[in-house]
Amino acid sequence: MKKIVLLLVAVAFAASPAAAGSKPKKVKMTAEEAQIAKQNAAIAKQNELNYKAMKDALPLLLPSWAIPVYFTMHQDDKDKDKKKK
Fold first, then answer.
1. Residues 9, 15, 16, 19: is their CA dihedral positive or negative?
2. Mean pLDDT highest for which of 20-24, 50-54, 69-73?
């Protein structure tokens, strides 16, 4: 048992430099890559706005019996927002 523990300690000690690794170097973006990143950020913002609009429009699509359930579920979120302010 003692040999197994010592073997595990030796393996962990030998593997520690490999596990640490080196940090990847930051590479400067070219003008084209910067433009693509800017476009991706704009698309992400638009997607977020669309998601919020769909989420807000959900009660319009729900059947009448599910609307009270939906508003009850989201009442806790509104209460938390009021307490933060």
1. negative
2. 50-54
pLDDT by residue (tens digit) across 45-68?
999 999 988 888 888 888 888 888
Question: Quick one: pLDDT at residue 21?
Answer: 65
Q: Is residue 76 packed enough to be buried (19+ CB in 10 Å), middle (13-18) or exposed (0-12)?
A: exposed
Rounded Cα distance between 44 and 80, Å, is: 27
Q: Mean pLDDT across the stretch 28-44?
A: 89
Q: What is the DSSP string of 16-81?
A: HHHHH--PPPP-PPPHHHHHHHHHHHHHHHHHHHHHHHHHHHHHHHS-TTTHHHHHHHHHHHHHHH
